[in-house]
Design a protein that fits this description.
mainly alpha, globular
C-alpha cells in the first residue's frame, strides 16, 4: 500500500522546510564570506557572478515554499469543507494554477543549477565553447521539455492524475537532468585529473572529490525522484519538493568546500632567512590557489611559479691615491663642487 497523497504533501512540506533552512543558512555564510574579504580581488571578481546566481536560487526556493504553504492551508483549512473528498481531492486538481506554479519554479531552479554546472565545464576547458556547446543544447532541450510538461498538465482533464497527464514529458525531463549532471561532472573531473597527473596531487584530489560528491548527491536525488515517479508512488511529491532547495544547497556547498581547499596558504618560516635567501616568505601561494580557481572546481592554471630572491654582493676597490670629487645638486638646482675625498 502506497503513501496517501495528503500524507505525502505534508511530508514534502516538512522536508522542504528543513532543507530550505539549511539553504538559507549557507546563503548567509557565503554572502558574509564574499563581503567580509572585500580586499581580496579574486572574491570581488567572483561575487559578481556567484551572488546573483545564489540570490536567484534562493528567491525561487522561497517562492516554491510559500506556494506549498498556501496549498497546505487551502487543502486542510480554507477549502476542506467546500471541496468534496477533502485534502486528497484538492491535491488531485493538477490543473490548479498554484500546482502549475510549483512545477514552473522547479523547472527554472533545475535549469539554473544545470546551467551553472555547464558554466563550470566551460571555464575548466579554457572558455572554449565547443566543449560546452553539446551540453547547452541538452540544457535547452530539457528546459523546453519541462515547460511543455507544465503546459500539458495545465490542460489535463479533471480527475486525471499526474502520472497519466504528462508521464513521458516528466520522465524525459528527469532523465535529461541526470544525463547533464553525470556527463558534465565526469567531463570536468577528467579534465582536472588529466591536467593534475603527477602535480600537486593532494590539492587536486580534494577538488575532484568535492566535485564528485556534489554531483553524486544531486544525481541520487533526481534518481530517487524518477524511480518514485515511474513507480506511480505519491512519494514523488516529497522527493520533488526536496530537490528544490537541494539544488541551491549543492551550489553553495561546492563554493564553500572549494574555498576551504584552495584558501590554505603555504607558510614557510625560518629563523635563518638571511642564510637562505631563496626560501619563500610567509604567505606564499600554494600550487592551487584561488587565483587559479573560481571556487567552483574550475582549474585554469595548474601551477604558480614561486618567486626566488637572489642577493648579489658586489665588491669594488677604490684607489685613494687619485683625487676625486662628487657633484651634488643644491636646493636651487645648481651644481656645487666639494673637496676631494
Amino acid at each position: 500500500m502506497g503513501i496517501r497523497l495528503d500524507t505525502a504533501e505534508l511530508l514534502a512540506l516538512l522536508l522542504e522546510t528543513l532543507l530550505y533552512g539549511i539553504f538559507l543558512t549557507l546563503y548567509f555564510v557565503v554572502i558574509a564570506l564574499f563581503w567580509r574579504n572585500s580586499r581580496d580581488k579574486t572574491l570581488v571578481r567572483q561575487r559578481k557572478f556567484i551572488v546573483p546566481v545564489a540570490s536567484t536560487m534562493l528567491a525561487l526556493a522561497t517562492a516554491h515554499l510559500i506556494v506549498d504553504f498556501v496549498r497546505i492551508l487551502q487543502a486542510f483549512v480554507f477549502e476542506l469543507e467546500t471541496t468534496k473528498g477533502g485534502a486528497i481531492a484538492y491535491y488531485h486538481k493538477i490543473q490548479s494554477p498554484l500546482y502549475i506554479t510549483t512545477k514552473v519554479l522547479y523547472v527554472l531552479q533545475t535549469t539554473l543549477g544545470d546551467g551553472f554546472l555547464i558554466w563550470r565545464l566551460y571555464i575548466v576547458y579554457g572558455k572554449k565553447l565547443k566543449f560546452a556547446a553539446p551540453f547547452l543544447v541538452m540544457l535547452t532541450v530539457n528546459m523546453i521539455v519541462g515547460f511543455v510538461a507544465c503546459a500539458t498538465i495545465s490542460r489535463a482533464i479533471p480527475g486525471t492524475t499526474i502520472f497519466a497527464a504528462a508521464k513521458q514529458w516528466i520522465a524525459t525531463f528527469f532523465s535529461l537532468t541526470m544525463c547533464i549532471n553525470v556527463l558534465c561532472t565526469g567531463t570536468i573531473v577528467w579534465r582536472i585529473w588529466s591536467r593534475s597527473w603527477g602535480r600537486a596531487g593532494g590539492s587536486y584530489i580534494a577538488i575532484i572529490a568535492v566535485i564528485i560528491e556534489s554531483g553524486a548527491l544531486y544525481t541520487f536525488s533526481v534518481l530517487a525522484l524518477l524511480i518514485a515517479f515511474l513507480s506511480g508512488s505519491d512519494g514523488q511529491n516529497a522527493a520533488l519538493d526536496a530537490v528544490q532547495p537541494i539544488v541551491g544547497i549543492i551550489f553553495l556547498l561546492l563554493i564553500l568546500q572549494i574555498r576551504l581547499h584552495t584558501k590554505t596558504p603555504t607558510t614557510i618560516q625560518s629563523s635563518t632567512q638571511s642564510s637562505h635567501p631563496s626560501q619563500p616568505k610567509s604567505g606564499s601561494r600554494s600550487p592551487f590557489t584561488p587565483a587559479d580557481s573560481d571556487y567552483s572546481g574550475n582549474v585554469d592554471v595548474p601551477y604558480t611559479m614561486q618567486p626566488i630572491t637572489v642577493n648579489i654582493a658586489k665588491e669594488t676597490e677604490t684607489d685613494y691615491s687619485k683625487p676625486s670629487s662628487i657633484k651634488v645638486e643644491s636646493l636651487d638646482g645648481h651644481g656645487k663642487s666639494i673637496l676631494p675625498i
